[in-house]
Amino acid sequence: MGRELTDDTFGSIMQFIKFGIVGVSNTAISYVIYVVGLVLLQEIHFLPEYDYLIAQIAAFVISVLWSFYWNSKMVFTLEEGKERSVWKALIKTFIAYSFTGLFLNSILLFLWVRVFSISEFIAPLINLVVSVPLNFIINKFWAFRQA
To answer: Domain span at residue 122?
Structure first.
């Protein structure tokens, strides 16, 4: 006899798939904003030593808002009759993404670019290996956790 897929297991698998879809769209948007920001900042010669960090911050803010919206609508939905404080969840999401998406990614970005001389265009892609799994865990068990 095969093991049947329980509703909880199926729900968790679907949640992970949806998180992946939101994550892919978020990554694409974040990267596009980063590259456009970097090119524009390089074009106007605004703080050339730190242009990649400024572009990263802009990409971070916009992508967190994008992720929060879609994760709350598609991934970490509430059971019927349950309510969530949107502002509390948004603040938690910014805190979670600040740790992984801003703080950790900025340190890693500096390390890849300044220490290892990796291209500013490739370094954010390397960061995904670290930040994506951390983001899912933090969002699932803290930012969008139901009481």
So the answer is: 7-143
Q: What is the pLDDT of residues 27-84, one digit of tens each?
A: 899 989 999 999 999 999 888 888 988 998 899 889 989 999 999 998 888 777 788 8
Q: Concatenated DSSP letters for the chain? A: -PPPPPHHHHHHHHHHHHHHHHHHHHHHHHHHHHHHHHHHHHHHTSSTTTHHHHHHHHHHHHHHHHHHHHIIIIISPPPTT----HHHHHHHHHHHHIIIIIIIHHHHHHIIIIIS---TTTHHHHHHHHHHHHHHHHIIIIIT---
* The total number of structural domains that make up the chain: 1
Alpha carbon distance 7, 96 (integer Å): 28
pTM of the model: 0.69
pLDDT score of 118: 95
Give Cα 16 distance to the centre of its chain: 14
Question: Does 116 fall in a domain?
Answer: yes
